[in-house]
């Protein structure tokens, strides 16, 4: 039943976006169609993103820039607020359930948020065509990363490095599936910090949040259990995206008519998605998301090259 | 190589003794709990303000400088072209224009942007009390980073 519902949602999404794409070329379209279409599209993006376990803005930026008539500057500004609002609304629960660790968040967030300022400034200084090409390459690479990356539920790690020991990073959480507490710590923290600098630049530059990169780095490189990686990533975004979001806001690249429907649509959609998650088959949904990313990435690349 | 360890014979409420030097308790630390509560309350407050001001804007109230119906003329422009075309302010200058609905809208969004700082200020006092110098330093630096980004000192001319 969920699969049927998901198929209907995908069809509705495609139909909405086709209508939007047609309306782009029609100057007579009433203004309110756009925010409304944005609300519906982002609601569906929110459902799909939650079901596939990805952040909404990684789908939001490439899809909205492919189908809506807004300039990339405003879409990226909105993308950061979308990621920020989603993170702020889900982080408290994760932090209170110990699925996120502030002792892990704080050092990583410091570097990621600092570098996201550089990314935002870089993104705002590049021409739209170059950004679309880079975004296309990035989104296509993320799709490929999703195909090949295999997260590990509870990774094997070596001895924690000196920095992780000094910062006393680690904790424990209750694993409901096994009924046991799982204690955890991390290793290779210095390498992780370097990667989080790069993640911050990309997040700020493209306004796509960074959950797609945070989780593999936390899980596969630092060795955090998957649940801790997801929870910590979500809590990290609230800080990483804040710095970059301010750069866009101060620059005037946040238009409420684009940002507010997007934030509301994705937040509502992700709540519905989380409820559907109990009965959905994440694997098939993940493949659909990979296809959507590939499509959006290639379209952005072609648009940037002037072949779209 | 060692794997992350399920702790035998403990329940969800138990405190787990350490592996290396790490904190190994399923109990949430008080500072994490307080930080989470601040995020929860402040983010919902920001979202509610955002929704209310947006409804005022699309209803055409509070004399917007760029009416919602005129936005299709501008949203395809780059941010620099948009600023020129609408004489939009940069930095915090919009605060002097919040009597116009389009700028009033930015209050909720800007509030979402300071929620993390509010949370970090509570962490600052917590780590100060605990004399946890590494985390006190990092939290202080983070507040400076976000405050600098928010201050508008980073600026891009046009492209």
Beta content of chain B comes to under 5%
Distance between the termini of chain B: 51 Å
Helix content of chain B: 40-55%
Q: Order of helices and strands of chain B, N to C?
A: EEHHHHH
Secondary structural class of chain B: mainly alpha
Unreliably modeled segments of chain A: none
Structural class of chain A: mainly alpha
Number of beta-strand segments of chain B:
2
What would the principal axes of the Cα set say about the shape of chain A? globular
Average of per-residue pLDDT values of chain B: 85
Helix count of chain B, per DSSP?
5
Strand sequence of the main sheet of chain A, in spatial order?
2-3
Mean pLDDT of chain A: 86
- Residue stretches of chain B low in confidence (pLDDT < 50, at least 5 long) are 7-23
- SSE run of chain A: HHHHHHEHEEHHHHH
Major beta-sheet overview of chain A: 2 strands, antiparallel
What is the 3D form of chain B? elongated
Number of helices of chain A: 12
Extended strand count of chain A: 3
Our estimate of the beta-strand percent of chain A is under 5%
Q: What does this entry look like structurally?
A:
The complex is a heterodimer of chains A (308) and B (159). Chain A has 12 helices and 3 strands. By secondary structure, chain A is mainly alpha-helical. Chain A has a two-stranded antiparallel ribbon with strand order 2-3. In chain A, a hairpin with a 4-residue loop joins β2 and β3. The longest helix of chain A is centred in the C-terminal third of the chain and has 26 residues. Chain A is globular and about 60 Å long. The two termini of chain A are 36 Å apart. By secondary structure, chain B is mainly α. Helix content of chain B is 53%, strand content 3%. In chain B, α4 packs antiparallel against α5. Chain B is elongated, with a radius of gyration of 23 Å. Chain B starts with a strand and ends in an 8-residue tail after the last helix. About 11% of the residues of chain B have low confidence.
């Amino acid at each position: 039943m969920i699969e049927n519902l998901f198929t209907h949602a995908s069809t509705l999404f495609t139909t909405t976006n086709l209508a939007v794409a047609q309306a782009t070329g029609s100057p007579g379209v009433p203004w309110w169609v756009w925010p409304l279409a944005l609300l519906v599209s982002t609601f569906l993006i929110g459902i799909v993103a939650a079901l596939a376990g990805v952040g909404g803005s990684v789908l939001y930026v490439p899809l909205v820039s492919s189908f809506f008539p807004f300039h990339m500057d405003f879409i990226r500004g909105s993308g950061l607020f979308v990621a920020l609002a989603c993170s702020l609304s889900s982080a408290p629960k994760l932090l209170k359930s110990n699925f996120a660790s502030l002792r892990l968040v704080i050092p990583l967030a410091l570097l990621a948020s600092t570098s996201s300022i550089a990314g935002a400034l870089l993104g705002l200084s590049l021409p739209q065509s170059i950004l679309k090409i880079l975004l296309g390459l990035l989104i296509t690479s993320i799709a490929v990363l999703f195909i090949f990356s295999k997260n590990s539920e509870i990774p094997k790690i070596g001895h924690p490095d000196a920095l992780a020991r000094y910062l006393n990073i680690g904790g424990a959480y209750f694993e409901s599936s096994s009924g046991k507490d799982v204690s955890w710590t991390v290793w290779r923290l210095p390498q992780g910090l370097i990667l989080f600098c790069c993640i911050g630049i990309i997040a700020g530059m493209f306004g796509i949040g960074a959950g797609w990169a945070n989780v593999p780095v936390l899980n596969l490189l630092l060795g955090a259990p998957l649940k801790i990686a997801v929870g910590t990533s979500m809590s990290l975004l609230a800080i990483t995206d804040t710095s970059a979001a301010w750069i866009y806001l101060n620059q005037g690249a946040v238009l409420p008519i684009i940002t507010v429907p997007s934030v509301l649509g994705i937040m509502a959609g992700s709540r519905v998605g989380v409820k559907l998650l109990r009965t959905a088959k994440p694997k098939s949904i993940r493949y659909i998301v990979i296809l959507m990313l590939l499509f959006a990435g290639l379209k952005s690349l072609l648009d940037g090259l002037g072949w779209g | 190589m060692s794997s992350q360890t399920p702790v035998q014979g403990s329940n969800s409420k138990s405190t787990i003794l350490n592996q290396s030097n790490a904190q190994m308790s399923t109990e949430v630390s008080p500072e994490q709990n307080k930080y989470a509560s601040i995020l929860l309350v402040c983010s919902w407050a920001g979202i509610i303000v955002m929704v209310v001001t947006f409804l005022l804007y699309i209803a055409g109230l509070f004399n917007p400088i760029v009416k919602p119906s005129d936005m299709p003329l501008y949203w395809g422009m780059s941010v620099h072209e948009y600023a020129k075309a609408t004489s939009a302010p940069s930095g915090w200058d919009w605060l002097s224009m919040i009597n116009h609905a389009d700028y009033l809208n930015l209050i909720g969004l800007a509030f979402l942007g300071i929620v993390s700082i509010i949370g970090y200020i509570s962490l600052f006092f917590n780590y100060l009390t605990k004399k946890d110098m590494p985390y006190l330093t990092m939290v202080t630096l983070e507040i400076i980073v976000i405050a600098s980004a928010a201050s508008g000192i980073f600026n891009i001319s046009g492209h």
